[in-house]
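User: Predict the structure for this protein chain, please.
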Amino acid sequence: MTRIDDWDGFGQRLTGSGTTLFDDVPVAAEDVEPIDLAAPSSLAAVFQLVHLATLAGIGRAAVADTVAYVAGRTRNLHNPAHPAPGTDPQVQEVVGRIGGASIVADAAVAAAATVLEELFRAQPAGQSLLDRADVAVFGAQGVVARLVLDLTTELFEVGGSSAVTDRFRLDRHWRNARTLASHNPVIYRDRIVGQFLLHGTSPSSAYAKLREDVGEES
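Assistant: Here is the predicted structure, written as structure tokens:
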């Protein structure tokens, strides 16, 4: 097995993404788990929940780095009335706002995870519960992605030009969040949630069509 470090995205550089080559790699029969692609599944919700948890973690890290950045500064050229940025009410407001956004992102992920936990405890689960899990995760996806992308942009309001210097690398939080959020564009998740709320369309129907297309191609 050969791992090639050829991922050229501007974010998530440490995820190990890239090309993997398999050449005569043995796979034991007991390590193969067949999946019925035509059957309703919670796999999409589980995968997206992992992405959501990662986004929420990026939000936490961004807030922590912002707090450390503000605490380490002793000059405040933008507001001479408050020599230390940490005592500037406007800086405090920005920190409070991005901190609140991170808390809400965490809560949204936890709420979606609660529905998935209910799904797994109810096995075998019916279609209605599968739909609830998809809607809970996909609905949270749009909220969490926007919260984290916004807060990783707004954090730069706490400093001047020094906030964009490479030594702080505060931009990596936005780059990581933007790259991760782009793996599964939010606009499609929003549409799935909207179709379900308006017409009761099962989110799994979109995946069923995809599975049909994949089956026809194969």
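The chain has six helices and two strands.
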